[in-house]
Amino acid sequence: MANIEAVAKQAGVSVASVSRVINGTAARADTEMRVRKAIAELDYQPNSAARALKVRQSEQICLSFDDLANPAYIAMTRGVGRELSATKYRLILSSAFSSVEEIVKHLQTMGRGFADGLIISPIYSDERITKLISALNMPVVLIGTMPEGLDVDNVHVDSSAGVAMAVNHLVETGRTKIGLINGPLNTKPGIRRKAAFEKAIKAAGFKFDKASVIQANTFSPEAGYFAFSEIEDFSKFDAFVCANDQLAAGAMKFASENGISIPGDIAIVGIDNTDMASLLHPTLTSVDLKAEERGEIAAQLMLDRLANPDRASKQITVEPKLVIRESTAKK
Fold first, then answer.
1. Helices (runs of H) and strands (runs of E) counted in the chain
2. What is the pLDDT of residue 49?
3. Cβ–Cβ under 8 Å, residues 243 and 189
């Protein structure tokens, strides 16, 4: 495993310069760039948790999501904030990560001392993200599927089991022509939801048809509306699993505007069980991925890490729950 001396040699700078970059103190821009490049090339992994305690001054925890307007992330933020509210730590939010490059840029600036810890839930999978998280000079808690080669505290939900719950529920209500309104396949949720849907359809005794998966370009209500509008023949479907509640909301709006009865013509199940699920008409059956609970657990892991920097990393799995409402009433 590479050490700090090897990083200094690779970057062509002094050990002191490497230490300044790692600890988030003043360093020239070109020096920082060379050091971070060397860290990535050598896969250098400093003892980030212990070092963070030595340099901690901000008393702030950074929470980073793809889109803070997403109701699931709002619930998660609520959980993190509740756990931190009785401590000395302030919660700061970082968002708008619409690409791998934006996440990489964010992680490259995290070592500059404005936060004592990072709770992050990246929806993209990329080797650069993994390496940058490993090299951070602060404790990290990752919400979501743990990338291979990363050793940090982690809380995740078995979303594949949640998709299976959705499919099985639709089968139990008499549906036999089930489709998936999925999110983008360059994201981890999009990849997992599609694979889980195919597996669940086959396990239910049906033949999987690639045409049953409708790809939306984002996880937004607008994308759900557009994806539904692209379906040429609704007679081929009697139910849909939507990759999140926002996609489901968009699909339901299109259905309402075009005389498609829910649940009469088509039953719909969302994923996330956000606050909007009980406000839609009809109310939306949804798989509860317990976002608020995962936020609480992530904050607890962070506080425990700050208090015990040398402990082994912890991985906690949360089980999903199906919440049945009007959108999947039996035929």
1. 12, 12
2. 46
3. yes
Q: Is the pLDDT at 255 greater than 90, yes or no?
A: yes
- 270, 70 in Cβ contact below 8 A? no
Paired tokens of 134? 């490993």
- Residues 313, 152 contacting (CB under 8 angstroms): yes
Non-local CB neighbours of 67 within 8 Å, separated by 6+ positions = 73, 95, 96, 97, 219
Nearest-5° angle of CA 246, CA 250, CA 262?
110
DSSP state of 235: G
- How many other C-beta atoms can be found within 10 angstroms of the C-beta atom of residue 185? 12
Rounded to two decimals, what is the model's pTM? 0.78
Judge whether 213 and 243 are in contact, CB under 8 Å: no
Task: State what percent of residues in the chain have pLDDT above 90.
Answer: 60
Quick check: helix, strand or coil at residue 138?
Answer: coil
Structure-token pair, residue 118: 């990072």
CB 255 within 8 A of CB 80: no
pLDDT in tens, 17-26: 887 787 666 6
Residues 325 and 282: beta-carbon distance below 8 Å: yes
First to last CA, the chain: 61
Q: Any long-range contacts for 18-26 (C-beta under 8 Å, 24+ apart)?
A: 21/111, 22/46, 22/51, 22/111, 22/135, 22/137, 23/51, 23/54, 23/55, 23/111, 23/137, 24/55, 24/111, 24/112, 24/113, 24/137, 25/55, 25/113
